[in-house]
Amino acid sequence: MAEKITLQDHQLERQIVLSRILVGGTIAFLLILVLLARLFYLQVNQFDYYTTKSDSNRIRIQPIVPTRGLIYDRNGILLAENVPSFTLSLVKEQAGDIDQALETIRSLINLTDDEVDKFRTRLKTRGVPYSAVPVRYDLNEEEIARIAVNQFRLPGVSVDAELVRHYPQGDAFAHVVGYLGSITEDEIKILDPVNYNGTHQIGKMGMENFYESILHGQVGYETVEKNSFGRIMKVLERTDPVPGQDIVLNLDSALQQAAIEALGDYRGSVVALDPESGGILAMVSKPAFDPNLFVRGISRKQYAELNDPVRTPLFNRSVAKYAPGSTVKPFIGLAALNEGFRTTEDTVYDPGYYTLDKHRHYDWTWWSNKSGHGTVDLQRAIYQSCNVYFWDLAADMGIDRIHDFLFRFGFGRNVSFDLPSASTGTLPSREWKRAALGEPWYPGETLNSFVGQGYTEATPLQLATAAMLMSNKGKWYRPAVLKQIGVEGTPIDQRGFLPDIEIKNPEHWDFIARAMEMVVNRGYGTEYRTYGTAFPYIADGNPVKYRMAGKSGTAQVVAIPDEYDRADEVPEKYREHAWFISFAPIDNPKIALAVFVEHGEGGSAVAGPIARQILDAYLLEDGELKPEYRYPQISEELHEEGEAHDEPVPGDFADVLPVRQNELPLAAINQ
Question: Are 82 and 135 in contact (CB under 8 A)?
């Protein structure tokens, strides 16, 4: 029997197809509704957001770095200026592959590994996306042309003209003016991200650092329209930056240069102050360095050279502490008079040594002739630099009294206005030693302190300040590098910072000043020279045009090994430091200074002539005292007296001077 054949059910198939079409249509309709809803959301609800985002691809807000303020000396000479320079910069977001971009740049111009490393560091510290980061500074014309011709290969790369810092005086003011350097990662964390947007450098030391907020200014902004290649097509809006303010310093370029020349090849420092304002007229530290090296990033080789362990050119000796030696004796002598431990007539006999607890402390004269200064009063003790007199005084006064008195002169603290890195030095006392070392104070340490040795340490700035106070009879001015803000600004008043130093008998100021005058003006004839600097009133037959006061000092660095018995045999690292402090003219002080010569040995033989050369440069013009310094003058009577005597005139105390200066080894002079 044949099988039953089932025919196709067209009705059922039609229903299935229609149901599928209905379902598919429904799904398609729903998807269209979702798409329309999404389109409505994007085009209507999110209109502002996407319009802004779209505009951000072509409209950018970029910072305008303010022009940095200039730095002038007191006479209007530029110490820090801004000069035009061309910089190759890169925007990371537009450049794409940074490594490839750097390789392309290297194929066009010279780009060192050191410059690449610095670029990557700057890239990490940039504060805002789409900001340009410097790759190479100071492009020349040929390099600019190569970049321009190959611009199509360098998306995000541009050559920008800008003003860069330049120090026209080179290394002359390096330590005091300072320099600019690249902003580090640590610095970017504490700087204002808005005001320093686009700024890549900041003051690193000196006045550039201390007055950064004044010199930098306020950042500006401009809204620009860019094309797809990142090129500016149109400036839509601009807010100009506020330039940094100029500052005028108390520094005198001519005096600074004179101090540099006077120091010559010595390592050391000169600090000169204006007794009428406290302004720092000169601050020299040698060896120095060229601050222009740091402006565009110093190479590893150059930086290694600046870290020479002996020359240490980056080290500012003007604000570093050293044993001051005999330069403290005038101030200790004034303390003795003021506290009643000595009178102007009291004398001490110096056999060449002082005995304390059966131990002999030898004066410097003992090593030359096995004798001492004989009978000396305070003035003689100062101008002959008699250690025995001050050791005897130390036993009577004690360390705490002299600590309190010298503290009033600025020792043991930083009293400067704008040199925060200056050392406070060390002004020892019983309390200080107990706190610092956990040890008691011993009498022998008092003896060392009274001749500027042992724990006692001071900076050239502190000694120049003390000399200024002596010249002013205790009137305090705070030492300051800054004179005024703005070329037309008002000079800053440095009075009132500390109370003036008042002593019981004001005549003692003149007594000590006269002793300091004897240091440099003993023996008016050309044949007679005593210890010390011995600058006579008569030089080459012509009267000196001004009177000066001073005090030399020779500070021992270490105990000299026994095998070295002559000064010229002592290795340099063992040689004493040489000091000289001074002020002039005595009756109308216009300058006070401190000269420090590292391992210079003789304060009178080395530092003293340097001081005199600097004073002459500042006070004289064509061999004559400058008109503004001519009151009061040295009396004609004094000139005539000096011309009439080839031997010491009365008052030079030649009877107690055992030998002449040229018979003493340099290392023994004025210890």
Answer: no
Report yes or no on whether pTM surpasses 0.70.
Answer: yes
Of these residues, 182, 253, 326, 471, which one is catalytic? 326
Beta bridge partners of 553: 579
The CA distance from 223 to 243, in Å, is 19
Q: Are 345 and 418 part of one and the same domain? A: yes
Residue 670 has pLDDT above 80, yes or no: no
At 441 the pLDDT is 94
Contact 266, 288 (CB under 8 A): no
In Å, how far are 18, 176, 560, 577, 653 from 596, measured between CA atoms? Answer: 108, 17, 20, 7, 29
| Whole-number pLDDT of residue 217 | 93
In the residue annotation, 326 being an active-site residue is answered as: yes
Q: Are strands 180-182 and 201-203 parallel, antiparallel or unpaired?
A: antiparallel
Q: Which residues contact 636 (CB under 8 A, 6 or more apart)?
A: none
3-class SS of residue 267:
coil
List the structure tokens of 208: 């550039």
486 and 579, same structural domain? yes
> What would the DSSP string read from start to end of 185-227?
HHHHHHS-TTTTTT--EEE-SHHHHHTHHHHH-B-EEEEEEE-
Question: Do 136 and 257 share a structural domain?
Answer: no
Range of the domain at 466: 253-286+321-668
- Specify the number of domains making up the chain: 2
pLDDT tier, 322 (very low <50, low <70, confident <90, very high otherwise): very high
Q: Above 70 in pLDDT, residue 583? A: yes
In a domain, 601, yes or no: yes
Q: Do 195 and 267 have their domain in common?
A: no
Angle at 184 (CA atoms; ends 217, 105), nearest 5 degrees: 95
pLDDT given at position 526: 26
**Are 127 and 182 part of one and the same domain?**
yes
**Residue that the structure tokens 């290795």 belong to:** 571
Select the more confidently predicted residue: 111 or 9.
111
Determine, yes or no, domain membership for 47. Answer: no
Strands 220-226 and 59-64: antiparallel
Residues 435 and 573 in one domain: yes
| CATH classification of the domain holding 642 | 3.40.710.10
Using a pLDDT cut of 90, give the percent of the chain over it: 46
Q: Is 32 part of any domain?
A: no
In the block, tokens 């131990």 appear at 359
The pLDDT score that the predictor gives to residue 514 is: 93
Whether 598 and 661 map to the same domain: the answer is yes
